């Protein structure tokens, strides 16, 4: 087995707040291999964005504690100085954010912003070369008339076009790792389809690995190969996308898929929601964080309440649940 | 309970809400001081439909298509430029403020953002009772009882009467928003993106609640949404909007099963499917470009600038909504 491009080991992120410490990510470990696309899925507050930001060391503030290891090509990002991390950002790894308007500076032309991203890591580039690079990048991400558009400002572009520009900036240095945090959530479906295609296309061209953060299981099925499901700061299931959709093992993943799947079925069928609400991170349930909403917890008794389950192999997936393999594998999606 | 709309003879007495050639133009751009001609955003341009008792009409479309403007016109939260809204045969658009107050007992709105639509300084109970106090239909004691009843109806614990909006989760707040809309026992509810701000697992809960309430209270819904899978689940009739006009309207079976308008086809194919095998197989229609500006929409067919089937006639003559059989109406010169 080859050495993974990115290796996250026991990542913990804690925010100090007035109401006490909030542990948004509680010991997360995963690998990303070169050129692969993985998805991190979860509801709001599950810790998926905090995980993504930690990879770039973007969690600011004096009250943030990040523990564990984030190894990019074997080097620990968390142990690096700010200067060293800055050299990696936008160069070896880059990020696409959810809202392209806030990700772009309204006072600079988009040509300037693309050129800036390049010149920071290539300081001896001439102005003419930089402009050429900006034009090429715009052309690559499918902006029509790059010669005219390069001198325009973000407000002169539509949402989809802005996201293309953000992608152009992220890819200008051909990063090995691209982190896309809800890249299409702010966009309409027809534009979302364009952007997902573009990300897949760019990935093939640059051979980058992509981490796609999303809450939309449809998007996951479209472009990713491997799936991490997060719940309340933990990874609860890790599987190939095809396995996870065909035979989800964790009760939470099953519930998520069921509430989506039934939408596809006949109209006016009773939907099967997951009961209850996601837990507050300040007041986490003991043991397995999902137990108050889990329909199997009462069958297993106190274990779910007392002990946090660890990820283990169940069938083709890795799942954090106390239920036996037989139970988890037989549950599946029920009537699918 | 899924009787097909198609097989029923449309009975005029059944119609609770009717839009007749509704139009809303917003002035924009130039200032009056400089005497420049004011531009008009054609947000809604000639929309007609009727909603029958106990049924759900869903209006779908991407941002900027005018669906939310339409929602506000229906409840007369804004004044139409021309056209009218008939509620139980009475014209809402020309009603005096006194008449309107009475009419609003029959038509209520559920908004997208349940946090923004609840007064943060009012307790949940107070907020739910507000319509009753405005309409002065009950004594304070009766109001309190009614609010308890409503909270019970939407699945909120009556012990939470004195709590404030910030103490609730998004899903619970939306339940409160629904309870408030139900306070006056309306016949019609306009729901403007009622679940799009919620997590997937919570969306299913709220959709189930809306369906249950419809069955129990014989409500009619105008359901505005951009999420096509949600709409498929809840709608009896679906209208697709593009740039201020309805381009296709029919039963979900017709609109989803056999979409006829090229825009509907592209929209349907752009929705990510939560099924990796299917996602890999199916053919997607990716639209090029962006939605044109509603300030200066294309002459003739408004979709022609992005349409693959465009011919000369599309730029000359505007296609009308024509019945293609069984109440499936399409506005295209070359429908499938």
Which secondary structure elements does this structure contain, and how are they paired or packed?
The complex is a heterodimer of chains A (336) and B (336).
Chain A: E1 6-17, E2 20-32, E3 37-41, H1 48-55, E4 64-72, E5 75-76, H2 82-88, E6 93-96, H3 100-103, H4 110-121, H5 127-140, H6 146-149, H7 159-171, E7 177-181, H8 189-206, E8 209-214, H9 217-223, E9 226-231, E10 234-240, H10 241-246, H11 251-264, H12 297-300, H13 303-306, E11 312-314, E12 317-319, H14 325-331
Parallel strand pairs in A: 3-8, 3-9, 6-7, 7-8
Antiparallel strand pairs in A: 1-2, 1-4, 4-5, 9-10, 10-12, 11-12
Chain B: E1 15-28, E2 39-52, E3 56-60, H1 67-74, E4 82-87, E5 90-91, H2 97-103, E6 107-110, H3 124-135, H4 140-153, H5 170-182, E7 188-192, H6 200-217, E8 220-225, H7 228-234, E9 237-242, E10 245-250, H8 252-257, H9 262-270, H10 276-281, H11 312-316, E11 322-323, E12 329-330
* Rg of chain B, Å, rounded: 21 Å
Helix/strand/pairing category of chain A = alpha/beta
Indicate how many domains the architecture of chain B comprises: 2
Order of secondary-structure elements of chain A: EEEHEEHEHHHHHEHEHEEHHHHEEH
Number of H/I helices of chain A: 14
> Architecture of the largest domain in chain B, CATH level 2?
3-Layer(aba) Sandwich
SS summary, helix count of chain B? 11
What is the CATH class of the largest domain in chain A?
A: Alpha Beta
Task: Please compute the radius of gyration of chain A using only Cα atoms.
Answer: 21 Å
Low-confidence stretches of chain B: 1-9
């Amino acid at each position: 087995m080859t050495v993974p491009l990115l290796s996250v080991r026991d990542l913990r992120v804690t925010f100090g707040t007035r109401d006490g410490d909030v542990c948004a990510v509680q010991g997360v470990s995963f690998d990303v291999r070169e050129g692969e696309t993985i998805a991190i899925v979860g509801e709001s507050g599950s810790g998926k964005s905090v995980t993504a930001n930690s990879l770039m060391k973007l969690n600011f503030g004096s009250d943030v504690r990040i523990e564990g290891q984030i190894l990019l090509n074997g080097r620990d990002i968390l142990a690096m100085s700010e200067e060293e991390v800055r050299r990696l950002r936008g160069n070896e790894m880059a990020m696409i954010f959810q809202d392209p308007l806030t990700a772009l500076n309204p006072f600079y032309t988009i040509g300037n912003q693309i050129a800036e991203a390049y010149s920071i890591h290539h300081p001896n580039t001439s102005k003419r070369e930089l402009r050429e690079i900006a034009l090429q990048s715009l052309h690559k991400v499918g902006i029509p008339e790059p010669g005219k558009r390069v001198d325009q400002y973000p407000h002169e572009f539509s949402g989809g076009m802005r996201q293309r520009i953000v992608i152009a900036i992220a890819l200008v240095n051909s990063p090995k790792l691209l982190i896309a945090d809800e890249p299409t959530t702010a966009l309409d479906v027809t534009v979302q389809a364009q952007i997902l295609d573009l990300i897949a296309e760019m990935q093939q061209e640059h051979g980058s690995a992509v981490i796609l953060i999303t809450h939309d299981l449809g998007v996951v099925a479209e472009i990713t190969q491997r799936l991490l499901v997060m719940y309340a700061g933990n990874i609860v299931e890790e599987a190939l996308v095809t396995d996870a959709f065909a035979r989800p093992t964790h009760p939470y993943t099953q519930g998520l898929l069921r509430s989506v799947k039934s939408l596809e079925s006949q109209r006016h069928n009773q939907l099967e929601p997951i009961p209850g609400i996601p837990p507050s991170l300040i007041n986490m349930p003991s043991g397995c964080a999902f137990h108050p909403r889990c329909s199997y917890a009462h069958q297993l008794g106190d274990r779910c309440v007392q002990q946090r389950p660890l990820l283990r192999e169940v069938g083709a997936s890795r799942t954090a649940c106390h239920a036996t393999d037989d139970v988890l594998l037989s549950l599946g999606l029920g009537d699918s | 309970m899924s009787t097909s709309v198609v097989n029923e003879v449309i009975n005029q007495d059944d119609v609770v809400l009717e839009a007749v050639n509704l139009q809303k133009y917003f002035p924009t751009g130039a200032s009056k001081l400089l005497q420049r001609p004011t531009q008009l955003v054609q947000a809604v341009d000639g929309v007609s439909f009727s909603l029958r008792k106990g049924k759900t009409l869903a209006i779908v479309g991407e941002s900027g298509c005018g669906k939310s403007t339409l929602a506000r016109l229906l409840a007369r939260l804004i004044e139409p430029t021309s056209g009218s809204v008939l509620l139980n045969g009475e014209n809402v658009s020309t009603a005096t403020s006194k008449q309107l107050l009475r009419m609003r007992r029959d038509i209520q709105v559920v908004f997208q953002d349940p946090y923004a639509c609840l007064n943060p300084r009012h307790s949940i109970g107070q907020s739910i009772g507000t319509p009753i106090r405005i309409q002065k239909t009950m004594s304070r004691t009766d109001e309190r009882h009614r609010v308890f009843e409503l909270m019970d109806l939407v699945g909120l614990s009556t012990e939470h009467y004195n709590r404030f909006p910030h103490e609730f989760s998004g899903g619970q707040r939306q339940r409160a928003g629904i309870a408030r809309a139900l306070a006056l026992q309306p016949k019609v509810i306009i729901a403007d993106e009622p679940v799009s701000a919620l997590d997937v697992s919570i969306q299913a809960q709220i959709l189930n609640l809306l369906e249950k309430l419809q069955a129990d209270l014989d409500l009619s819904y105008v359901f505005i949404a951009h999420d096509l899978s949600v709409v498929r689940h809840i709608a009896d009739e679906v209208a697709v909007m593009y740039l201020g006009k309805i381009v296709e309207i029919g039963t979900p079976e017709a609109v989803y099963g056999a979409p006829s308008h090229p825009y509907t086809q592209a929209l349907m194919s752009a929705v990510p499917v939560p099924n990796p095998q299917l996602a890999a197989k199916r053919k997607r229609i990716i639209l090029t470009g962006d939605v044109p500006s509603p300030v200066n929409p294309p002459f003739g067919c408004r979709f022609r600038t992005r349409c693959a089937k465009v011919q000369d006639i599309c730029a000359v003559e505007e296609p009308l909504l024509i019945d293609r059989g069984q109440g499936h109406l399409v506005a295209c010169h070359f429908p499938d």
